[in-house]
Fold each of these.
Amino acid sequence: MEKDFLEHGLNFNRRRFLSRLSLGLGSVALGSLLVPDIFNGDSSDSGWVPGIPHFAPKAKRVIYLFQNGAPSQLELFDYKPRLRDLMGQDLPDSVRRGQRLTGMTANQTSFPMVGSFVDFKQYGDSRSWISDLLPHTARVVDDICIIRSMYTEAINHDPALTFFQTGAQQGNRPSMGSWLSYGLGSENKNLPSFTVLLSKGRQGNNQGVYSKLWSSGFLDSVHQGVQFSSGDDPVLYLKDPDGMNKQERRKFLDHLSQLNQISYEEFGDPEISTKIQQYEMAYRMQTAVPDIMDLSKEPDDIIKLYGSDSMIPGTFAANCLLARKLSENGVRFVQLYHQGWDHHGNLPNDIASQAKEVDQASAALITDLKQRGLLDETLVIWGGEFGRTNYSQGKWTAGNYGRDHHPRCFSIWMAGGGIKPGISYGETDEFGYNIVKDPVHVHDFQATILNQLGLNHEKLVFKHLGRRYRLTDVSGKVINDILA
């Protein structure tokens, strides 16, 4: 009896499973007839074609100066004199509001507030407050828009950095540069549409960067970022091997293309077509890249503008100058990562050194683009992945302290590309801990960037594994108040 009952239950489950499966398969078949591209990795259903903006763009290109490690806004852009008055006093619970902490300060029994060791002054017609650590940035303050009310959901470097670059805290998503390459294509057939430059600070903790940050994710791999290095081979594997000349390379690529075309016709794998495109791009880059990478032809006034470090390959200054050259030659998205901003301790000494390395070249890039008539069509961005706490990590003294990660509020700046110049947007409280006016989420920031390049962030989508993905995921709004 018990055996029969069990068998009946198993039969019922099997019947139920098969009946539901048939309904599911029928729905799939019907869906594929009604919407033929429902299972294709394709663009939105709006009829938009990748490579064409949704509307007239204000910017053509982006140069993103990412300050990896999270610079302290309290020593650079967010002037909080009240913190000096409260030096050493414990952060009130009413201000902290249960904010989660990293493992580095979670066990602290007190959170002594610390004012900035450096002074601030007001500059330009905008009267914006800028730290004495950034005298060159102060001179271009009327050309930039400072956002003091950025916030993020991540509290540790890897997810926070990934979130800024891909719109998600997990990996395997296309980076911002890849989305722009997919959405707009390339302006120069001899150069990739998305390039990456790396530099390191001389002091401070150098948080690492990883190739997933410039990955194309589930987009066609032709959209992934191409890393340029400061060595003899700025792009690896670009040179011809010894004994092969240009004509032989051309014949080799022609035959290889024929073989790949046969494979594509047999298997239909789109990555085979991508491989053909990448070989051809590498061939064209062999001529274009050496000229781009040669900074020796830059006039003396430009070298003086960027500083003497601009002649040292791999420095932030050299990469800023290189970013200008790449951008003016049609590279759609130039991503520069500068490491060394993770100041958990010894902050006064290390941030002063770090700021000195980046200040002149950052301001020079703005000036250089402006005098060439390129700033209006080039969006320049400067900032890190989150901010720094208003209290000291561990013990502090009047001359030395550190700051932990703080995702609740921090500062970045943007310039050119249709962004309103000479303004400060958003406010934090007198403690520099919470946003009190005009909060800007990471997805709002990303939506605004896409908007300036003529792309609607809600329509720039790609269907993958049955879901429509976008850079801003399921949130984000354009910050209209900062648009010119």
Amino acid sequence: MTDIGGRPIDVSAWIGGYPFRHVPHPDPDVLVRVLAREGFAGAWVGHLPGAFHRDPVPSNRALLALLAPFRTVLHPTPIVRPDWPRWERMLSEAVAEGAPAVRAYPTLWGMGPGHPAMAELAVACGEAGVALHLTVRFEDLRQRHALDAAGDLSAAAVRHLARLPRSCAQLVVAGAGREFIEEVHWGLTAHEQQRVWYDWHWLWGPPEDHFAHLVQTIGAERLAWSSWWPLRLTQQAQALVDLLPTGPVNESPRASFADGRRIAEAARSAAAVARSPG
């Protein structure tokens, strides 16, 4: 695994338990070892239990405390809920902690496509120079618990955020399939496409080869490395790269894939341009 600046930064990892089934070893010290084993330089880390809490503040505090001994490798991505009191303070505290991104779970909060609070959050993230991380789903429908009734994030919701005329936010979409990615990507202008990134952990490899198809069509630069620890097999991302067909189109895609480092730099650069006069 290689990327600009060395080993890639994983954009989709969590610590903590999952309310609908047991997940093994959801601890930060284990994640550090997993990342080293799989060739990652670090990870954007969210607090998995907090995704299902009404109030994200205690979850964010727990996340920062648990990651404190590992901050050179594990980069906190706290939750910001934009319909919650003083959500702006949540965002400013995340920025102060050096978070490269913040996470939002609009389907779990009952926010559909076009919700004004999510639009406000996207604009604020762009101004703050942090990415906005969105999770399509945590589990496949076939294994989902009956109590997990929120549903998947829709492509329309992502397109709406990418199309906001006054936003420069970089959007990271985790857990999307080929149809979702194509629906978003081809529904945006070329400029808007450059602000949306997708991890590929839920894409099919051979024989369907959805991953290879997207590498060839939307480009490797729109696809970001991830581990999806502790919910999925961390080897998935590397396996799909290893299974890419050889040839002129896929001659050297590895250096083109995005990661957390590249996306964080894009978010900071976009904010700086937006703040510059003229």
Amino acid sequence: MIKNIGPLERKILEILWDKKQATAREICNSLEECGDRRAYSTIRTIIKRLVKKKIIAESIDPKERTFIYTPLLTQEELEITIVNSVIGELLSRFKKSTISYLAEELSDNEEEIKRIKQKLYEMKQDE
């Protein structure tokens, strides 16, 4: 269950989404090109954290004998996973308050209300 990702994790993921795959050194170099200079060991630690969270995969390039990292989730899939996790936890802990808050936040947005109604209708049809 992925609840959140940190700013450096997001930067690394953005590089991987763009490149499709990269080594830790390539990720480190890409960050430096963007003006974000970090120690190589820091980047490796964050990469290992993303592997442990099952957001990226680690494989070995037999020719170069280096690890290659690839994203397991698209940006949209990751965002949906995080939103589902956070809202699911809020609903389990504070059901009435969460629903009330969401209803109040959406009450002025007719387009969002239409999208929610459509989604609820589709879910009802699938039952």
